[in-house]
Each structure stands twice: as C-alpha cells, then as structure tokens.
Write a structure and sequence with these properties.
By secondary structure, this protein is mostly helical. The protein is about 70% helix and about 0% strand. The two termini are about 30 Å apart. The model has no long low-confidence stretch (mean pLDDT about 90).
C-alpha cells in the first residue's frame, strides 16, 4: 500500500495536481523504476542522432504534436508555424532519427522518450 501511495504522490507532484489515485497513475508505474543510466541510454538511442543543443526544441515540437493528438493544424497554431513547415520538420526528424512521429509504433517510443527527457531535465 505504501509503495502505491508513494507512486501516486510522485505522479501527482509531476502533474502538479493535488490528488491522484493509484489506478490513474498509468505509465509512471513503469517509468519510476527505470534507473538513470538506462533512461540515458534510451534517450541516446532515440535522440542521439540529433545535435544535443536541439533536443529541447524537438521535444517541445513532439510533445505539442502529441498533445494535439497528431493534428498538424492545431500543433502548427500552438507553435506559431505554418502547417507545411511543421510537416517538413516532422519529416526532417524522421530523416535524422529514423523514427516517424506520425507512426503509432514510433510515436509510442517517442512519447516514452519525451517523458524520460522531461524527468531528466527536471532533475538538472
């Protein structure tokens, strides 16, 4: 019981909500158990072909894209980009990383990487 309560608390703090039931925790159950070295290896494998100084901007773009449920127009509007510019950036990301943000399988990998990157950045 204590472990579940602690996981719910940590997840609530990250989400900046006052209360979160353990049944609503989701992916945090797994991600909390990943040791930093493993998380860094995953990030290096996922984003390693991108210049390190660009990771923040790519993560922001991808996070916004997924928050908008893959809608190019909504994402472009939130990022103050033209829809075609956004499409070109997603294509460039795929060329650089060989991961297609528009694909469900690659998107799942990228969403885990985004979460790990945000956790790592919060610790720095």
């Amino acid at each position: 019981g204590f472990t579940q309560a602690d996981k719910a608390l940590q997840s609530a703090l990250r989400r900046q909500v006052s209360l979160l039931w353990y049944s609503d925790v989701g992916l945090d159950i797994i991600l909390d158990d990943i040791v930093p070295a493993t998380a860094q290896a995953f990030l290096d494998r996922t984003f390693g072909s991108l210049p390190l100084g660009e990771w923040d901007s790519w993560v922001t773009l991808l996070l916004t894209y997924y928050e908008c449920d893959g809608s190019l127009q909504q994402t472009a509007d939130r990022l103050y980009l033209h829809k075609n510019t956004l499409g070109a950036r997603l294509d460039r990301f795929e060329r650089l990383t060989h991961l297609n943000p528009r694909s469900r399988a690659d998107g799942a990998v990228l969403q885990v990487a985004i979460e790990l990157y945000q956790r790592q950045s919060a610790l720095s």
